[in-house]
Amino acid sequence: MRIEPVFLFDLDGTLVDSVYQHVLAWKEALDAEGIDLSVWRIHRKIGMSGGLFTNQLLRETGLDISAERVDRLRQGHAAAYRRLAGQVRPLPGARELLAWLTDNGIPWAIATSGRMETAALNIEALGVDPAKVPVVTRDQVKYAKPDPDLFVAAAGRLGAPIETAVVVGDAIWDMLAATRCRALGVGLLSGGYGPDELRQAGAFRVYDDPADLLKHIDEVGGRR
């Protein structure tokens, strides 16, 4: 019996070219709070849950971060990101890949660690209608990546066992989450992580971007 796959996509750095806008938005929010953190360190945390971001921030800076300050950081990031969102574009091949899956009857969903206040801007840039396609955001689950909750919820929205899912993401946090829920992890280089990092975190295959994945879709269970 053939097991039909479903595809679960991260959003930032996977379908839309938005990672560095998020980095700059976090930098602005941190600077406003007088927290000095290098840009490259911020980039390494993009894609994980906000709670883990804060925990790592505490570890690296040694600062005492109150709940009020965490909320100000989140709001500051969201406000800064909204100002930068006009620069965000779909990654090469993203729309074509999603259209190909739809045309071939292969279910797909989006699962992002971002909250809807920022994810909505990216979904609009991508041209996806949340009324027709399942979109699971940080607001809807208890834990975000590297916990697998987002992907498990997205598979559930598609009515599919998580073990049949192909998780496509650009960050090690996506691959770790995929491994934890026994899904197949496929990494993309379009978010700034290297191929070795993605493979060590559990990626079964690594491609440049959505366009490259579409060219090799049969390698991960898609059928032309």
UniProtKB/TrEMBL annotation:
InterPro entries: HAD-like_hydrolase_sf, HAD-like_sf, HAD_sf, PGP-like_dom2. Gene3D superfamilies: HAD superfamily/HAD-like, Putative phosphatase, domain 2. GO terms for biological process: DNA repair. Transmembrane segments: none annotated. GO terms for cellular component: cytosol. GO terms for molecular function: phosphoglycolate phosphatase activity. It holds the Pfam family Hydrolase. Keywords: Hydrolase, Plasmid. This is HAD family hydrolase. It comes from Chelatococcus daeguensis.
